[in-house]
Design goal:
The chain is an all-alpha fold and 174 residues long. It is built from 7 helices and no strands. It has a single domain, classed as Growth Hormone, Chain: A (Up-down Bundle). 87% of the residues lie in helices and 0% in strands. Helix 1 packs antiparallel against helix 7 and helix 3 crosses helix 5. The chain is globular, with a radius of gyration of 16 Å. The mean pLDDT is 92.
Length: 174
Amino acid sequence: MALLGVFALNGVMMSSWLARIPSVRDALDLTAADLGVVLLAGAVGALATVTAAGPFVTRFGGRVAFAVSAALFGGAFLLLGLGPATGSVGLLAAGIFLNGMAFALGNVPMNVESAGIERRVGRTILPQFHAAFSVGAVLGSLVGAACAHGEVPVLVQFGVTGAVAWRCASPRSR
């Protein structure tokens, strides 16, 4: 059950950020080309992390990887909100980089763990885990769209979203 929550959390984190990209672009007065360059930071963060995620999970285990991923999401979302609030493209880029790292680090163990569960139960259940990701993505998109519609500042939405991720990383939440 906890693993379904991890999949859902990753969906929420990804889509709540994606839903507010237009607000972030407008707040920083970025052109489409500028935004495209800044968004590359996420791909770089994910690529750098995915290569180390397997050894990290092997050494520390999936629970630690999930906790570190959730903590990284919390930090990333703080930076994603602070960038537009302070007019800093550098803070935004750092947040995007950390967001890519968080997603990549969490993605490896959640798929490894779900494949292991599937082997133990002896039937196909991976689609259920990916459905949890999709449910989280829908929820995150709805929250992002509602916040954009209600003109909730990005810093407020991302601050709350990041706090949820931090809470999920806390030892008491597991």
